[in-house]
TrEMBL record:
This is DNA polymerase beta. Keywords: DNA damage, DNA repair, DNA replication, DNA synthesis, DNA-directed DNA polymerase, Methylation, Nucleotidyltransferase, Sodium, Transferase, Ubl conjugation. Its EC number is 2.7.7.7, 4.2.99.18. Gene3D superfamilies: 5' to 3' exonuclease, C-terminal subdomain, Beta Polymerase, domain 2, DNA polymerase beta, N-terminal domain-like, DNA polymerase, thumb domain, Metal-dependent hydrolases. It comes from Actinocorallia herbida.
DNA sequence: GCCGTTTTCGGCCCGACTGTTTTCAGTCG
């Protein structure tokens, strides 16, 4: 059974949004958001604890959450859903368009969607409207485009959770599947997913069970071998029943990618064979079908890990038996970018360190924000206090080396928070962009290069600063940045947060070719986030990284030597 | 709505940026 925390947090966030749109007190809005964050970040399942004991939750929210746990909703949420028009909510999904403007556009001009807004702008209906100058209209158009370009795809975290949920539900049926697995872009570890493909060997009752799930809003297709449903998040799920003897062939076929599959079929054809989702055949004779390994072996290839199946050179490498040894989750020995409640995390230093030890890390860096990000209210004194606390904590963890780090803010000119002599007191220095996202390409490139050239900076955090579905990547000459990183020994981060997924795998691949090394970090702001590193590993695998490319796959001694070397 | 070495009321991370405003409103992190 999935944790109830995420669903409850989502309901509270929705309530906060509706409450704000309804003109509610901003401080109460913050309370709901804070409670949602605390719930989502709580290590224990809500059903196992007293909700009232979670910090940030008082009597009023506890009652709402308890009602939510009992029946999947609460009275006040139902009331606000009925009161706030969907059109207003849809408008606020447009970046740069907040609640005030949404309400105004809806009430005064009857605009209730991104499409309607685009039409109104095209028709010149916003001309002369108070507060709607040309720049504002341009920004709205850019926001609409940003919303459209996400094209119904969601980040991998959402798709992964949903796929796990479907597999768990079907596995719990009276006649469970003999085999079940997800395929498609989800199995290839793509950073965004357009639909979820699930393969199963089992009875047609599985398809009925899927259609009956509460998150299914529409049945798109329902046949003997395939059921397609749409879910409340707009994501489509395809469930396909395949014959047990064709399992491997079906997995290959439905995992794709398309170009990879085309290459495989061409190789089969050249041997006088045929490859389909039912197997590899010579005429009627089955050559291979039951496992993926059998099929690749019959084609004279190594089994290709799904993240590489994009026809980006892996077919040739597999034919020559020269596929790289991809970095695995188990190779990671530590985490070099994490937060505590000293800045914007929700868990204490002690809680985060204890959870990291449970994961079996052999080193762990705490990298709270630095003073330039004013909202975090950090000071050098606070950082030094934290360092002392961390040093005291070290005695409790003989098998895990605690590293004191910081996440610096890269200013518009490429400078960071502290001078070198202060930076040298930190074991790990991550530096990231948190503002001025729209700088012109040349300035942004200079900014990153300056950060790389700063001898006090070890790692550039979440380099493109994108948030999938919310914020586009910044514009920079990435090859120039990668060259600077390679030249200075500056490591680029693969931020594992599924909505960041940053660097993206295509840029990781390019950076690797230019000699850059990487760090796969959780950027955890709560205990459960520490487990997100598997998402970053997926990105690394898509870019064909090996353990040698990833500094936190290195043993402690090698890592420390690298961090100590002047860059 | 939450919280308490400012403790049961009165604060709440708050500053920067943008565009439009001639003194500020909205949005964001």
């Amino acid at each position: 059974m999935a944790r109830s925390n995420e669903a409850a947090a989502e309901a509270l966030n929705e309530y906060a949004e509706l409450f704000a749109l309804d003109g509610g007190d901003p401080f109460r809005v913050r309370s709901y958001q804070k409670a949602a964050k605390a719930i989502a970040g709580h290590p224990r399942d809500l059903r196992e604890i007293s909700v009232r004991d979670v910090p940030g939750i008082g009597e009023a929210i506890a009652k709402k959450v308890e009602e939510f746990l009992a029946r999947g909703g609460f009275r006040q949420l139902d009331a606000l859903r009925a009161k706030v028009p969907d059109g207003v909510r849809r408008l606020t999904r447009i970046p740069s368009l907040g609640p005030k403007t949404a309400l105004f556009l809806y009430r005064e001009l009857g605009i209730d969607s991104a499409e309607a807004l685009a039409d109104a702008i095209a028709a010149g209906r916003l001309k002369g409207v108070k507060g709607m100058g040309p720049k504002t209209v341009d920004n709205l158009l850019a926001g609409i485009e940003q919303l459209r370009s996400s094209g119904g795809r969601v980040h991998r975290g959402i798709a992964f959770d949903l796929a796990q949920q479907v597999i768990a539900v079907l596995g719990g049926q009276a006649s469970p599947p003999e085999r079940i697995a997800y395929a498609g872009s989800l199995r290839r570890m793509r950073e965004t997913v357009g639909d979820i493909d699930i393969l199963a060997v089992g009875s047609p009752g599985l398809m009925e069970a899927l259609r009956a799930q509460p998150f299914v809003t529409e049945v798109v297709a329902a046949g003997d071998k395939k059921t397609s449903v749409r879910t409340d998040r707009g994501l489509q799920i395809d469930l396909r029943l395949v014959p047990a003897e064709s399992w491997g062939a079906a997995l290959v076929y439905f995992t794709g990618g398309k170009d990879h599959n085309v290459r495989l079929r061409e190789i089969a054809v050249r041997k006088g064979w045929k490859l389909s989702e039912y197997g590899l055949f010579e005429g009627e004779r089955v050559i291979a079908a039951a496992t993926e390994e059998d099929i690749y072996a019959a084609l004279g290839m190594q089994w290709v890990p799904p993240p590489l199946r994009e026809d980006m050179g892996e077919v040739e490498a597999a034919l020559k038996h020269e596929l790289p040894e991809l970095v695995q989750r188990a190779d990671l020995k530590g985490d070099l970018h994490t937060h505590t409640n000293l800045t914007d995390g929700v868990a204490s230093l002690e809680e985060m360190v204890a959870a990291a030890a449970d994961l079996g890390h052999s080193y762990y860096a705490v990298t709270d924000h630095a003073p330039d990000l004013a909202m975090q209210r950090m000071t050098l004194d606070k950082a030094l206090e934290q360092r002392a606390a961390l040093e005291a904590l070290q005695a409790k963890y003989p098998r895990m080396r605690l590293l004191h780090g910081t996440e610096l803010n890269i200013g518009p000119d490429g400078s960071v928070d502290w001078p070198l002599e202060v930076l040298e007191g930190f074991d790990v220095r991550v530096a990231s962009v948190h503002s001025h996202f729209t700088q012109p390409r040349e300035e942004m490139t200079r900014r990153f290069i300056a950060a790389c050239e700063n001898p006090g900076v070890h790692i550039i955090g979440h380099p493109t600063t994108r948030k999938i579905g919310k914020r586009p990547p910044v514009d920079a000459d990435w090859d120039a940045v990668f060259d600077a990183a390679a030249r200075t020994g500056t490591v680029l981060e693969i931020d594992s947060f599924p909505d960041r997924a940053d660097l993206p795998s295509d840029l990781v691949r390019r950076a690797k070719h230019r000699g850059v090394r990487f760090s796969i970090d959780s950027d955890a702001h709560a205990v459960p986030h520490l487990g997100n590193q598997h998402y970053g590993v997926g990105i690394a695998q898509r870019a064909a990284l090996t353990p040698d490319d990833v500094i936190n796959a290195w043993p402690l001694d090698r890592l420390l030597a690298h961090l100590a070397a002047p860059t």
